[in-house]
Amino acid sequence: MKLQIVVASTRPGRIGPVIGDWFTQQAKAHGGFDVEVTDLAELALPFLDEANHPMLGKYEHEHTKRWSATVAGSDAFALVVPEYNHSFTAPIKNALDFLNKEWAYKPVGFVSYGGVSGGMRAVAMLKQVVATLRMVPVVDAVTIPMVRTMLDEQGFHPTEIVEASVAPMLDELARLAGPLAAVREAR
Question: Which residues face 84 on adjacent strands?
């Protein structure tokens, strides 16, 4: 099973890649998945520029075809998302909106970070979006409140509570990935 980790922040000066790198190492050590990472800043999708509705799967642009292949080839997702103004970033919404059927019946977990809420408000809103795409959001999550207190020049230093939240989320993603693959095949 392939876990696709998606780093959702794209702004200059972002800390998403540092959090994403830490989580990627945790996911690899977990051993439940082959792990791949997509950084939306590197993917550089324009705002949705396909003429046809994504539900049709009739993509004209190479960037969409590549993104479609990445998502279609993944069995589970972990979205590394910051909270901006009590919500999620425009690039993650755009990346989700580019496609449709490729997302269906795949589990998704959230690694969120921010201030006092740790990104939970962004995740609450994102759950509505992913559920509409027929993804299955897992309850267990990695929530990183006051993230800047865990960063220094050497990197990210999570609290014990943050570290302890990783395995339950990955375990739940792994438990669901196989049965949901069977659901996709039966479709």
Answer: 87
